[in-house]
């Protein structure tokens, strides 16, 4: 792809009627929320989720053994689902369907109490 500077210069030098064509499809991404607090162990169903129509890829960025907390206490996501389709409603539907096929396993965390 072109750098930001190249795009700005091309835009400035082009006549108004020579604007670049816009893509006709819709695209979307879902940030996979953390379903429960705990120590991340595994993700299941990624293959089935990837097979959902319009899904381009699923990136699970969670790390095995890392402690995760749900929002608002936590500040991260388990990964991302990317989709592209004919229109925004189709893309949103595909993202939701793919997310519904994912399951995550977490181990419980133990609370350490201060010594008395």
Quick overview:
The protein has one domain (26-107): D-amino Acid Aminotransferase, Chain A, domain 1, CATH 3.30.470. It has 3 helices and 6 strands.
Give the SSE map.
Layout lengths: L3 H10 L12 E7 L5 E7 L1 H5 L4 E6 L6 E2 L10 E7 L2 H13 L2 E5 L9
Antiparallel strand pairs: 1-5, 2-4, 2-6, 3-5
Strand content: 25-35%
CATH class category name: Alpha Beta
Could you tell me the radius of gyration in angstroms?
Answer: 20 Å
Summed up, the helix count is 3
The N- to C-terminal Cα distance equals 61 Å
Average pLDDT, all residues: 90
CATH superfamily: ATP-grasp fold, B domain
Describe the structure.
The relative contact order is 0.26. The protein has helices spanning 4-13, 46-50, 88-100, and strands at residues 26-32, 38-44, 55-60, 67-68, 79-85, 103-107. The strands form 2 sheets. A 3-stranded antiparallel sheet has the order 1-5-3. The radius of gyration is 20 Å and the shape is elongated. 24% of the residues lie in helices and 29% in strands. It has one domain (26-107): D-amino Acid Aminotransferase, Chain A, domain 1, CATH 3.30.470.20. With 116 residues, the protein is an alpha+beta fold. The mean pLDDT is 90. It contains 3 helices and 6 strands.
């Amino acid at each position: 792809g072109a750098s930001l500077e190249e795009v700005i210069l091309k835009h400035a030098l082009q006549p108004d009627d020579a604007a670049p064509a816009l893509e006709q499809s819709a695209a979307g991404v879902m940030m996979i929320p953390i379903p429960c607090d705990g120590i991340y162990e595994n993700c299941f169903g990624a293959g089935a989720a990837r097979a959902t129509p319009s899904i381009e890829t699923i990136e699970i960025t969670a790390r095995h053994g890392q402690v995760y907390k749900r929002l608002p206490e936590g500040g991260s996501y388990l990964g991302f689902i990317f989709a592209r389709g004919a229109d925004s409603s189709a893309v949103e539907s595909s993202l939701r369907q793919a997310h519904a096929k994912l399951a995550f396993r977490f181990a419980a965390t133990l609370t350490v109490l201060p010594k008395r």
